[in-house]
Each structure stands twice: as C-alpha cells, then as structure tokens.
C-alpha cells in the first residue's frame, strides 16, 4: 500500500455515471477536462481535485465552530477508508470531489482492488479507460492493485473495454461480464492471455462467446513451458447458446484446473462434450448442465468419473436422464452434497434409493416434477440421509403426507421443504413443522399458515 503522502493532488480523477442532466454536468460545471456532446448517454467525466473550501456564491459557508463539530471530520483516515470500501465505484468517484482529504482517501490503492460498474446506459468502455488511466498513474501502464472487475449487465461493454482491462490489469484475478452480449471470443482470448493470474471468469449471457482459449501469439510463446494452460478455476458460461462440443473440448484442454463449471442452457452440448471435459478436467467439484437437453445417461457415466471430488451437480430438465444415470452418480460420487434433478421425469423410486444408500452425506436434493417418485423414495431418503437440509418435491404427483411425515421424523435438520402443487394434508404439514422447528415450508395449501 502506498503512503497517502505520495498521492499527487494535481492528477485528474474520474467521476463515473453522471447523466447529462445532473448538476455536475450542466453548463460544464464540475468538469474541467472532458465531457460528452452526445445527449442522453452516461459518460465518464474527468475533473480536477476539489478546492479545500466551497466558493459557490449561493452556498452559505458553515461557521468555524460548525465545521469543527462535523462528526465525519473527526474520523481517522483508516476509519474513512473502511467506510469507503463499501461504496460502489461510481459513488467512490463522487466522494473524491468533496474535498482534498476525501480526494486523497478515495484514491487510496487499497480501495481499488475492485472496480464494479452496473447499468445499461453506462459508457463502460470509456469509464474503464479513464479509471485505468488514473490507477496507472503511480505505476505507468499497469494497475498492479486491481484484482477484480465486475461490469455485469453493462450492455454497452465492447471488445474495446475488455482490451483495456487486458492491457492494464496484469494482476487481474476475477472478471465478471455477465449479460454483456457485445463481447466476442477475441476479447476474451486477450484477457486470459494477458492476465495469467485470472481464476474467476463469468461470461454468462455473452451469446457471442463460443470458446475460452489463449491467443495464437500467447499460445506460441507459452507452449514450450506451460503447455497452453490457463489458470481459470471458476467458469460460468450460462446462456452461451452457441457453445458446442468442439468449443467445450478446447476449453477443457486449456483450462485443466477447473473446479467450478456452469453450462446452464448451453443447449448444443451433448454427451460427447462431457467426455472431452472429463479427459482433461479431473478436479471439478461443481458442475451444472441444467437444460442441456442432449445430455443423457451416457453423459452422467462420464461425469461419474469425477468420483468423490464431485460435490455439486445440476442436471435439471435433462429429459433423457433416467435411473441408469443416477445409479452411475450414486455408485461413484459418494461425497455428493447437492443434486438438482428437477424435471428429470425418467427418475423413479429406484433411482432415489440408489442415491440415498450411496450418497448418505447429501444435504440438498431437488426432485421436483419427477412424477414417478413416491413416498417409497422418500422413505429411503429419510432412513439414509439424516443430514438433509433442503428438499424440493414441487409438483411430485405421487407424494402424500405419509412420505413427508417419515422425512420429518428422521431429518431433524431440515431447513427448507418445497411441496408446492403436491396433494398433502394440513396435518402432514403441521407434523413437519413440529418436528423440524427451523424448516421453511413452501406450499400451496391455503388452509395451512
């Protein structure tokens, strides 16, 4: 951490998210170096450090006694920095405009390990350029302190903004650009190639992203030593609809250290893609292939190769999965803690039995919309999975109050139970409430409250 005395007061600083009709924008006041001529857009504005006193003729100056009594001025620097640490990026930039002391504190490097921008109207490319330029002041061309950039939902983010991050943030460890559908593979390649410490990448909803790989130049440079490896451990590609098996193959070959992978609604992924994944990524702990309609029991056979390393699995609405696939998971993944199999209508009481007898440490289970699961399956759960905390049986037509009572009598730690659209009596729900004191019951029975 650099000393506050090293901070210069003559450097311009950005105040982000200033709409054109705000007081700081009108008539050019509050901006000494740049503004935007485009109406109706939000821009990054650059301004000089504020004066020590307010000199506007319409503002009445406080007396010396009142200034001395201001509680905020009594706080030491470390307390102010702690308060500033809870502010989003745009508010922190606003604080830098209050006075010279706040300017110094607001630009303390400890507060700039994270940049967080949100909003559909933000000119995020320009905001990132201005911010990184300011943060690079003490270390030319690089932001050594910046580790996290979150610009989720900023639809105006383009490849230019990501290229700025890639060029200026070599110590970046976490990048979230979910919902930014204008970015492409090339920009993502630049980031993963120039930020070797990147571990967490969220590109969910980025429909143009079809792969994660090094650029050709970086690949040639690193291959003799690193074997084209990327350090990413957490990857969320939810709603990347264009991702196919070949792209997943490339991801697996480059990101061999993956522990968390989410492929929700990547509808083109098949069992073949999962086979590639299991060849290279043997350390996966959490995996979601929800709504991947081409994934079947053969895909679960591949996933089962993760064995005891797998703790979280979501296969919701994978209609081709049956008891056969569940049996593979139950047999080899004995330390499974979470399973979401909602909408897998091929699962029966036999599948639940395999699961309950082999995955006894299960804590969360969703078998909603599985019409072939009945009270018999619930009995197997109750007699084997005593640590169960969350259970969803939504729209399970064969479930009755008797099955719920068996579960409640054995799973005392149950904290959430979803029985919406199930034919269960009020007495059964009251029985659950008596035995599981902390359980929140989601139901559609108007007689129970």
Secondary structure layout plus pairing:
Elements: E1 13-18, E2 43-47, H1 64-68, H2 71-74, H3 77-84, H4 89-95, H5 100-106, E3 114-116, H6 124-135, E4 148-150, H7 159-168, E5 174-176, H8 185-194, E6 200-202, H9 216-226, E7 234-236, H10 245-254, E8 260-262, H11 271-280, E9 286-288, H12 297-303, E10 312-314, H13 323-332, E11 338-340, H14 349-358, E12 364-366, H15 375-384, E13 390-392, H16 401-410, E14 416-418, H17 426-435, E15 440-442
Parallel strand pairs: 3-4, 4-5, 5-6, 6-7, 7-8, 8-9, 9-10, 10-11, 11-12, 12-13, 13-14, 14-15
Antiparallel strand pairs: 1-2
Structure characterization notes:
The chain has about 450 residues and is of the alpha/beta class. The chain has a domain at about 75-110: Up-down Bundle (Monooxygenase). Helices cover about 35% and strands about 10% of the residues. The chain has 17 helices and 15 strands. It has helices at about 65-70, 70-75, 75-85, 90-95, 100-105, 125-135, 160-170, 185-195, 215-225, 245-255, 270-280, 295-305, 325-330, 350-360, 375-385, 400-410, 425-435; strands at about 15-20, 45, 115, 150, 175, 200, 235, 260, 285-290, 310-315, 340, 365, 390, 415-420, 440. The strands form 2 sheets. It has a 13-stranded parallel β-sheet, with no helix packed on it. Strands 1-2 form a two-stranded antiparallel ribbon. Helix 8 links the parallel strand 5 and strand 6 (about 200). Helix 11 (about 270-280) packs parallel to helix 12 and helix 16 packs parallel to helix 17. The longest helix is centred in the first third of the chain and has 12 residues, at about 125-135. The termini are far apart. This is F-box/LRR-repeat protein 7. Pathway: Protein modification; protein ubiquitination. InterPro entries: F-box-like_dom_sf, F-box_dom, FBXL15_LRR, Leu-rich_rpt_Cys-con_subtyp, LRR_dom_sf. Keywords: Cell cycle, Cell division, Cytoplasm, Cytoskeleton, Leucine-rich repeat, Mitosis, Repeat, Ubl conjugation pathway. Pfam families: DUF7885, F-box-like.
């Amino acid at each position: 951490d650099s000393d506050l005395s090293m901070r210069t007061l003559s450097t311009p600083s950005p105040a982000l998210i200033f709409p054109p009709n705000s007081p700081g924008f009108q008539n050019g006041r509050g901006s000494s170096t740049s503004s935007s001529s485009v109406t109706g857009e939000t821009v990054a504005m650059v301004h000089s450090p504020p004066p020590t006193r307010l000199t506007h003729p319409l503002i009445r100056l406080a007396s010396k006694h009142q200034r001395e009594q201001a509680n905020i001025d009594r706080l030491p620097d470390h307390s102010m920095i702690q308060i500033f640490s809870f502010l989003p990026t745009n508010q922190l930039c606003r604080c830098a405009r209050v006075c010279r002391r706040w300017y110094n504190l607001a630009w303390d490097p400890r507060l700039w390990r994270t940049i967080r921008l949100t909003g559909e109207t933000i000119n995020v490319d320009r905001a990132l350029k201005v911010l990184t330029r300011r943060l690079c002041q003490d270390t030319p061309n690089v932001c050594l302190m910046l580790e996290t950039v979150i610009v989720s939902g900023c639809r105006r983010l383009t490849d230019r903004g990501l290229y700025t991050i890639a060029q200026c943030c070599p110590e970046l460890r976490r990048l979230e650009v979910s919902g930014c559908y204008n970015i492409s593979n090339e920009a993502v390649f630049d980031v993963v190639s120039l930020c070797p410490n990147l571990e967490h990448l969220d590109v969910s909803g980025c429909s143009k992203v079809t792969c994660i790989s090094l650029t050709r130049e970086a690949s040639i440079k690193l291959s003799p030593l690193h074997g084209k490896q990327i350090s990413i451990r957490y990857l969320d590609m939810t709603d990347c609809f264009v991702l196919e098996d070949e792209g997943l193959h490339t991801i697996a070959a480059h990101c061999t250290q993956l522990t968390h992978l989410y492929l929700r609604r990547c509808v083109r992924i098949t069992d073949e893609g999962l086979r590639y994944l299991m060849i290279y990524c043997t350390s996966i702990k959490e995996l979601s292939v929800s709504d991947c309609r081409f994934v079947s029991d053969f895909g679960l056979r591949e996933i089962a190769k993760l064995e005891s390393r797998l703790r979280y699995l979501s296969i919701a609405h994978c209609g081709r999965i049956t008891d056969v696939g569940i049996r593979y998971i139950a047999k080899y993944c004995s330390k499974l803690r979470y399973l979401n199999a909602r909408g897998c209508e091929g699962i029966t009481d036999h599948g639940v039995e395999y699961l309950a007898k082999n995955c006894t440490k299960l804590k969360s289970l969703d078998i909603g919309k599985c019409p072939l699961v009945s009270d018999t399956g619930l009995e197997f759960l109750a007699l084997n999975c005593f640590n169960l905390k969350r259970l969803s049986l939504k729209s399970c037509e064969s479930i009755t109050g008797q099955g719920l009572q068996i579960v409640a009598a054995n799973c005392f730690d149950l904290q959430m139970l979803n029985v919406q659209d199930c034919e269960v009596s009020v007495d059964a729900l009251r029985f659950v409430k008596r035995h599981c004191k902390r359980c929140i019951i989601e139901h559609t029975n108007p007689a129970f409250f």
